Amino acid sequence: FAELHAAVAGLPVGSSRVLPGLVLRRDFAAYCPAGGDLRAVLVTEPLQPPLPAPGVEFAVDSEGQYQASLRWISRRTEALMKHLQRNNVKLLLSSVKQEEVVLYHAKLHGVSVVECLSSEEIALIREITGISPYAPFGDNIHREITETAAATFCQPLLLGSKRYVHVGFTSVCAFQPHCLILCGPVDGVNEQHAAALQGAFTMLQQLFKRVDQ
């Protein structure tokens, strides 16, 4: 329930509504409007490629070497974004904060980025879509991306004074997610309404569980 409702203070209760899909409590780090077939990937690691291998010390002896390293990182990141673009990936959902070079190349190649998602949000998206996080820096950066989710829409959503991400996924299970937008004059009223609704849903779950048995 915590991931399937959003509270908005300063609006009348009558503005409350139910929206299809998920409302992620983040704004886009990079936004590129897109229509048609949307593919999304999950990542749980920084997409800026590491210079040294794990456990290997990397030493830079001159400014020239440092600049060359930055150019290598930029080219590698650009190659990754081109690879995502070729696989029709237009949405990158990240549990970690990405570097500016990643956001720069994402914008250039039409890939929207949402970062710093919670572990609960990532788990919910995985449950809905059935995909696992994408690990780009394996043996072959250009291998086919199989862990992608289909999204029917992806757009900014303004609730009160805050911007959120509104995304609809094609679910691989019977669960079709909808998000409850709770509006009220102050936070306290919204908290009361949320607690009451969560209690009602819990009661209904118990009721249907007994009926099934």
What does this structure look like?
It is a single chain. The chain has 4 helices and 9 strands. With 213 residues, it is α/β, with parallel strands linked by helices. It folds into 2 domains: 1-21 and 177-212, no CATH class; 23-173, GroEL (3-Layer(bba) Sandwich), CATH 3.50.7. Helix 1 links the parallel strand 4 and strand 5. The longest helix has 26 residues, at 187-212. The radius of gyration is 21 Å and the shape is elongated. The protein starts with a strand and ends with a helix.
Keywords, separated by commas or semicolons:
GroEL; 4 helices; 6-stranded mixed β-sheet; single chain; 2 domains; 213 residues
Number of helices: 4
The CATH class of the largest domain is identified as Alpha Beta
Mean residue pLDDT: 85
Identify the CATH architecture of the largest domain. Answer: 3-Layer(bba) Sandwich
Morphology: elongated
How many domains? The number is: 2
**Which sheet architecture does the biggest sheet show?**
6 strands, mixed
In the CATH hierarchy, the third-tier topology of the largest domain is known as GroEL
Give the ordered list of helices and strands: EEEEHEHEHEEEH
Q: How many strands?
A: 9
- For CATH, the homologous superfamily of the largest domain is named as GroEL
Strand content: 15-25%
Structural class: alpha/beta
Distance between the termini: 24 Å
* Helix percentage range: 25-40%
- Radius of gyration, whole Å: 21 Å
Model regions low in confidence, pLDDT < 50 over at least 5 residues: none
Q: Strands across the major sheet, in which order?
A: 3-8-7-4-5-6
GO biological process, one term: chaperone-mediated protein complex assembly
Protein name: BBS10 protein
InterPro entries: BBS10, GroEL-like_apical_dom_sf, TCP-1-like_intermed_sf
Organism: Burhinus bistriatus
